[in-house]
Write a structure and sequence with these properties.
Strand order of the largest sheet of chain A: 6-7-8-3-9-10
Oligomer: heterotrimer
Radius of gyration of chain A: 24 Å
Radius of gyration of chain B: 24 Å
CATH superfamily of the largest domain in chain A: P-loop containing nucleotide triphosphate hydrolases
CATH topology of the largest domain in chain A: Rossmann fold
Number of helices of chain A: 10
Number of helices of chain B: 8
Structural class of chain B: alpha+beta
CATH class of the largest domain in chain B: Alpha Beta
Order of helices and strands of chain B: EEEHEEEHHHEHEHEEHHEEEEEEEEEEEE
Distance between the termini of chain A: 30 Å
CATH topology of the largest domain in chain B: Rossmann fold
Strand content of chain A: 35-45%
Chains: A alpha+beta (362), B alpha+beta (358), C mainly alpha (290)
Helix content of chain A: 25-40%
Largest sheet of chain B: 6 strands, mixed
Distance between the termini of chain B: 46 Å
Chain lengths: 362, 358, 290
Amino acid sequence: MTLELKSVSRSVQGRAHIRPTDLMLERGTMNVLLGPTLSGKTSLMRLMAGLDVPTTGQILWNGTDVTGQRVQDRKVAMVYQQFINYPAMSVYDNIASPLRLMGKSKAEIDRAVRETAELLKLTPMLARKPLELSGGQQQRCALARALVKGAGLVLLDEPLANLDYKLREELRVEIPRIFEASGAIFVYATTEPEEALLLGGNTATLWEGRVTQFGPTPKVYRLPADATTARVFSDPPMNFVPVVKSGHRLDFGGLAKAPAEGAHAALPDGRYLAGFRANHVTLDKHSGDAVELPCTVAVTEITGSESFLHLRHGAEKWVGLVHGVQDLAPGTAVNVYLNPTRIYLFDADGALVAPASYALAA
Amino acid sequence: MAQITLSKLAHSYAANPNAESDYALKEMDHVWQDGGAYALLGSSGCGKTTLLNIISGLVRPSHGRVLFGDLDVTDQETAARNIAQVFQFPVVYDTMTVRENLSFPLRNRGMDAAYIAGRVNQIAQMIGMEDILNRKARGLTADAKQKISLGRGMVREDVNAILFDEPLTVIDPHMKWELRTQLKQLHRQFGHTMIYVTHDQTEALTFADKVVVMYDGRVVQMGTPEELFETPAHTFVGYFIGSPGMNLLDATVSGTIAHLQGAEIALGAGYGPLKGRTQIGIRPEYCSLTDGAGLPITIRRVEDVGRHRIVRADLFGQPFNIIAAEGAGISPEMTRVAFAPGKISVYADDWRVAGGAV
Amino acid sequence: MEKTQNNRAWFLVLPVLVIVAFSAVIPLMTVVNYSVNDTFGENEFFWNGLGWFEEMITSDRMHDALGRQVLFSAIILAIEVPLGIFIALNMPKKGFWASFGLVLMALPLLIPFNVVGTIWQIFGRVDIGLLGHALAAIGIDYNYTNDPLDAWITIIVMDVWHWTSLVALLCYAGLQSIPQAYYQAARIDQASRWSVFRFIELPKMAGVLLIAVLLRFMDSFMIYTEPFVVTGGGPGNSTTFLSIDLVKMAVGQFDLGPAAAFSIMYFLVILLVSWAFYTVMTALEKVETK
């Protein structure tokens, strides 16, 4: 099974909601749409579902053009951020409702409902009404209704966003397991990079209605094609600093120098944008060639096991995520260190020109 | 500004509470320091919102007193308590400009116009809105509106406390960073007493000096982020703080050794006889996969979270998580788990038992 | 919110179109036909162009009726809208008394128009009416059949009694949608009662209030049954509003041509005002959702 988008775009009243997009989604992997609010995740999903008609381009289902086809005629299920269930029906009837609409036999419905309820751990509450359940259970019920249809395409639009942190953590672990058992193509929209990583599969990063990159999730994370993708796919956002490359050196605005090796060394001399993630900043100089960056601390946030350092380096604002409790007072001058193998280089247009060498090894 | 004292405070929504389960808040005695940043952390229904409403004066506690400084405010109305509050959803006056929104609490108190103008500019600069002071609040994005709510809370210099009720719920992850650090900076600058209610452990830990973890109407632990992480006082704290939470295993403890299905684990501390269900807890961060020493483990799945990997495994049939560093090799021979010395906590009936010298 | 595209949905509108055609469009075209023709009976018609329109536009009779109509609508709106808001603000928000208040407010709306007229017609009579008799007993010279001012007051009080509930109920619905957090924030900001109304309640009510004003304007501008039952347009012509005059002209005098021209202009005025309201409303909504 495949869902293919061929230069699909959509504009409403002259405003582009989705810029021309090519995507090939396949069964057997989780497909994540990652991007901030209003980046076009929901618009793209509505196009996939057939709720909206694309302005240009084609949508192919198993190679057949379904572009103008109505959502009722496609086998599509959707789960939203809000827990949408029929409040007057029991959980059992909620799950059974799509099957009843399809005119399935009673025995068939019963079997399917019980199977799905078992998968989503809803069996003990089949007789209850959705509003008597916890938020997590309500969303499980909505998920069950989407799954039971046997839809070929299941679209999940930030399904965990309204749940408590810990419930989210639990369901997040379960979703890939649930999805392995079903034969559908799954598309999952989220604003959180960590969620994308946990779900695995393939990720498409979105920014302002454009898919900036699509590929296996860890690969997109470690080898972002451009600075926008890197920013979208980092939490805290990736740190950037302009550098000058000359010969075998990277010059960090005169404050620090780093050796340019491997892919970095092969680049022509000139100005670049260096990017590095918060968790690659350290307070100890772990190796001889580590880049020493003098900074001042703006504020520190301590999580118990790690500390977020909000740093100022000249005009640059950086975030470092370091191990242990580091209670540095605001205004403290501190040297942080960066392993040169963790530095990405982007050109003036933001395209990745040299990846961090560790990412190639991983 | 004032220190907040909760004295024998308890609350029940029932008229005649008898059983302990009738209480939404179970009796507590706490003193919150003037100028501290506190977070009330817990899952929904744990009583954190009730506690916040008691402090703000929206709910009158059925038992006990609330004191601001030396003043008993238990029977005082919200308006009389001189507090500020930021809500889950941005509450702004749509038809007013940003400037009017920020100056509203001051104008209502009949402050001097020159003072108001100066103060509003100062706050606007702090929340980064000096450019749009004359725009109408209607039509701004959710995070801009929430910044205005924040600014309105900050604008009065004399407030006893600023209360935050899950203020980042509607904010995008990228913006959350900015708002959270801004809040932290504002706290450093102004030194207001701040109380922040959330279910999100990251928000609570990064914001607060002291985190108050609530579970089932009870404060199960109040401590620094480090204390909550290193020595959770209750199994709920172990589970709730950290992602994934602490590994908890049923075991019998005698002296300095825990017995787990025939295997022995050195605890690094001595324990007397324990009553009730005994468990040992260890953080996934303090476990490591080895190919030599340690307990046998079955790896079910390895999740790559970017900055580290989460190894989901089974230890004697119980689920067990291990956090492995980014890039650390995981080979098929690594079938054992080793615990970092001194990092194991012992729990009897869910409460932590302090170990004695070995 | 974007809507799903499905052009076949138009077929669902077809039955309504047919009904509307028979009940509105065809009669309307008959009226248009009358308005441009003259007749001397026997179904013989002569082309009269815009003659009737010219006559009606310059007729004092219509000017007077229009003047009375505008005055009436203005007074009605000026009383019912503030009063409705006031009632809505003071209605209980929760519990038994909230439902009680709602039922009480809905009662006048459930009474048929001509019954409302009859109630007030009898209520105000000096000989047998509770109100009229009571007023006479305390020495107030009140008689709506003789005194134009008394007639106006009676009709206005009747309309206020009948329709303020609608404004109040709409505003009440608007108020109920305001989250508690807003009131709490206002208390913390030490906002005065007036500020709460001005900056929280009024902006949130603006949408429904506009609908209420539109409904009350259209209804009062087309009012017929109640004043007709109470005063029959009198004393003299003092309470003869546009619709009463129109019926007199068409049914009473059988001046079909002028009446048709009159009713078309009447229709256009209402259409114009409704359009203006619609434009304002959508503009407001755009600002709201921007």
